[in-house]
């Protein structure tokens, strides 16, 4: 073995938040991540000569970064920030209190004592409908401090070393004025204007390889033909009106290449397929556009090869020689290189290392890469370990925005003579172990299928609306002369709208994403001088529907109702639904309701709710509301203070560390084979603050006495 190639691909992406018809931005994430993530990550590499990396910028993000450079955009958040508090309407003050605390409370709000003081004053969990009740506790100085501190918290710590104005604003701490806002705006503009030139500079000197993705981040295989979903999910429910447009898929790739060249004056050799989504037809399109390499997930490789990627109890692969090499797929006389990411290592950085000491985390990653090299030394000459992940959202969970972790990591890598941190294209030039493929399994980097984006009733509704609107556009403008209408279609084809449909993900911004999707379709009609159909004014999101739990019950349980986990086994085999957290899109601050368990024996239904007490100031303020729908609807409330239960049912409930509830099927008036719907809500001082599921209900089928035997044969 000559050396181990280590390749980092940081994927930088934001959906297109701008309403193309009226020019308004409804969500601020391009601006916020622009001042926190897009500059500091490449800039840090200047300190570590020898570290080479890939940064993948989606065109929809670059387009918006350019738009924001002078902060002269119609942005709801900026408009409220720029207003003197004396001029804020009541609705604007409510908006400010609801949305201007959307930051990681531990790592972004707590470092500003005044900001954390204002958060406590507002309340950690304040539903939108109850914020109005708190307005009287805030004065103009409070509102002005919130305006400034929100945007200060979204500036990377690196810039506090470089800008005296930021040092001044942080040291001032409170009592900000209009001049301070202008000072902050000037810093924001300077940071935003520096992102693209910095990346271009580092690309030209070989530190970075820049790549891109299809323009508005669509799931290319599904754009080509919705039916590809059944390759991985044979029983997948498909939209009433199927969408199939290879022409649009090609346009998204072609437009991205052209825009990338326009910005950087060189071509992108590689592309990150949105969500790692690939298929044979999609790869053919990338080859048709002369893309040299793409990346996706290891599970796609194993599915393609009909193999399993088994790992030991430390997370190391049993058959490492399969993953740690690039592959070349040849088809129709063309070829494309594919690198497959190490999911385990990527997820360690994305979701786990933030909870560790940064030096320990960096040391562990380097140890793992070295051990991978040792595991293939007799089988591969130049193994390639590829880490691909979101380059934006992980770092707010890290102390110091991940900077300490990166410094220890890069210092450690440079000390290891056997590890070479290199770009994908350079690795491909030097590879000695490339594998050959003639086919690629159709799926994404999430569960190696497309279930996030198709199959659920909400996802399928969106595809039907998209297909119907595209047919209308094609009929009205077959020659593609109305560029704004077609651009609105391409925006609506982006993956992010369906990310928030269905049961998998939820945020405080779900309704905004739903609105933006339908507005993009409506804008097609407006640009063509037509009235949008009424159906586009109806939310795709369904409030009252069955939600599939994370897992279903598999055996009878017999928990002791004492408010604690008496032993490890008492809830084993129960059904479970994970909490979705409390926060804005992709920025969950704290998980208040961690999970809801449900199960049964022959006679009773058992339910358990787990909570995170980290940001609950007084546990006695908590109350739980359990709703059960059967032949009748029953609402039961358990008050932590005094352990008081209000219920029309003879149920048993207890809370200490967890809430446990037992209610007999007889009291519910239901028997074996009948269905009941349940959901659990949490209140603080009688205000609803969380719910599982976020929308809808979990359906439970009352078991027969032979339930366990029936499950045995499933």
Question: Would you summarize the structure shown here?
Answer:
This protein has 714 residues and is an alpha/beta fold. The chain is 38% helix and 18% strand.
How would you sum up this structure, described in words?
The chain has 28 helices and 25 strands. Strands 18, 19, 20, 23, 24 and 25 form a six-stranded antiparallel beta sheet that branches. It starts with a strand and ends with a helix. Helices cover about 40% and strands about 20% of the residues. The chain is an alpha/beta fold. The chain is globular, with a radius of gyration of 27 Å. The longest helix is centred in the N-terminal third of the chain and has 27 residues, at about 180-205.
Low-confidence stretches: 582-589
| Quaternary structure annotation | single chain
Beta-strand portion reads 15-25%
* Discrete helix count: 28
How would you state the average pLDDT, rounded?
Answer: 94
Radius of gyration: 27 Å
Proportion of residues in helical segments: 25-40%
The main β sheet shows up as:
6 strands, antiparallel
The total strand number stands at: 25
Determine the structural class based on helices, strands and strand pairing: alpha/beta
Q: What distance separates the N and C termini?
A: 48 Å
Globally, the shape reads: globular
């Amino acid at each position: 073995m000559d050396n181990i190639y280590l390749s980092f691909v940081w994927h930088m992406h934001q959906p297109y938040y701008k309403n193309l018809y009226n020019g308004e931005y409804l969500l601020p994430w391009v601006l916020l991540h622009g001042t926190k993530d897009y500059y500091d990550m490449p800039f840090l590499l200047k300190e570590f000569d020898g570290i080479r990396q890939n940064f993948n910028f989606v065109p929809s993000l670059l387009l918006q970064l350019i738009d924001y450079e002078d902060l002269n955009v119609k942005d709801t958040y900026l408009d409220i920030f720029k207003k003197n508090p004396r001029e804020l309407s009541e609705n604007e003050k409510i908006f400010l209190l609801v949305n201007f605390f959307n930051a990681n409370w531990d790592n972004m709000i707590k470092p500003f004592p005044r900001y954390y003081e204002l958060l406590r004053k507002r309340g950690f969990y304040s539903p939108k409908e109850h914020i109005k009740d708190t307005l009287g506790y805030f004065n103009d100085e409070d509102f002005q401090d919130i305006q400034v501190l929100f945007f200060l918290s979204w500036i990377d710590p690196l810039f506090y070393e470089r800008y005296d104005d930021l040092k001044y604003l942080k040291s001032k701490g409170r009592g900000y004025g209009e001049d301070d806002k202008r000072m902050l705006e000037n810093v924001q503009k300077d940071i935003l204007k520096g992102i693209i030139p910095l990346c271009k500079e580092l690309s030209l000197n070989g530190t970075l390889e820049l790549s891109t993705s299809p323009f508005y981040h669509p799931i290319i295989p599904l754009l080509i033909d919705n039916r590809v979903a059944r390759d991985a999910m044979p029983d997948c429910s498909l939209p009433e009106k199927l969408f199939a447009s290879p022409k649009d898929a090609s346009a998204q790739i072609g437009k991205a290449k052209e825009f990338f060249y326009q910005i950087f004056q060189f071509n992108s050799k590689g592309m990150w397929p949105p969500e790692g989504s690939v298929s044979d037809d999609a790869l053919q399109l990338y080859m048709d556009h002369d893309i040299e390499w793409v990346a996706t997930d290891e599970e796609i490789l194993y599915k393609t090869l009909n193999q399993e990627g088994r790992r030991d109890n430390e997370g190391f692969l049993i058959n490492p020689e399969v993953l740690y090499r690039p592959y070349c797929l040849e088809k129709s006389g063309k070829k494309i290189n594919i690198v497959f990411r190490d999911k385990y290592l990527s997820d360690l950085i994305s979701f786990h290392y933030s909870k560790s000491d940064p030096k320990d985390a960096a040391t562990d990653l380097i140890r793992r890469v070295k051990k991978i090299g040792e595991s293939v030394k007799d089988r591969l000459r130049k193994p390639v370990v590829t880490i691909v992940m979101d380059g934006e959202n992980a770092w707010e969970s890290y102390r110091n925005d991940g900077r300490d972790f990166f410094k220890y990591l890069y210092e450690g890598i440079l000390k290891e003579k056997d590890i070479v941190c290199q770009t994908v294209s350079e690795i491909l030039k030097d590879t000695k172990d490339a594998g050959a493929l003639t086919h690629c399994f159709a799926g994404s980097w999430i569960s190696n299928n497309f279930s996030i984006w198709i199959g659920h009733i909400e996802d399928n509704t969106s595809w039907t609306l998209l297909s119907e609107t595209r047919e209308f556009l094609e009929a009205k403008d077959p020659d593609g002369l109305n560029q704004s209408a077609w651009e609105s279609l391409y925006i609506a084809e982006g993956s992010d709208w369906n990310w928030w449909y269905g049961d998998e993900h939820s945020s405080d911004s779900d309704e905004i994403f739903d609105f933006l999707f339908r507005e993009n379709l409506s804008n097609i009609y407006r640009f063509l001088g037509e009235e949008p159909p009424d159906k586009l004014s109806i939310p795709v999101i369904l409030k009252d529907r069955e939600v599939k739990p994370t897992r279903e019950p598999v055996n009878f349980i017999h928990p002791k109702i004492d408010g604690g986990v008496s032993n490890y086994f008492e809830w084993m085999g129960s059904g479970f639904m994970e909490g979705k957290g409390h926060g804005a899109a992709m920025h969950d601050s704290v998980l208040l309701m961690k999970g809801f368990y449900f199960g049964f024996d022959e006679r009773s239904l058992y339910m358990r709710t787990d909570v995170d007490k980290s940001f609950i100031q007084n546990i006695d303020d908590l109350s739980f509301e359990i709703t059960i729908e059967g032949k009748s609807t029953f609402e039961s409330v358990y008050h932590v203070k005094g352990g008081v239960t209000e219920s029309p049912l003879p149920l048993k409930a207890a809370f200490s560390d967890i809430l446990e509830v037992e209610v007999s099927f007889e009291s519910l008036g239901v028997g074996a084979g009948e269905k009941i719907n349940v959901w659990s809500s949490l209140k603080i001082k009688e205000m609803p603050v969380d719910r599982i599921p976020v929308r809808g209900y979990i359906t439970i089928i009352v078991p027969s006495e032979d339930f366990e035997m029936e499950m045995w044969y499933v």
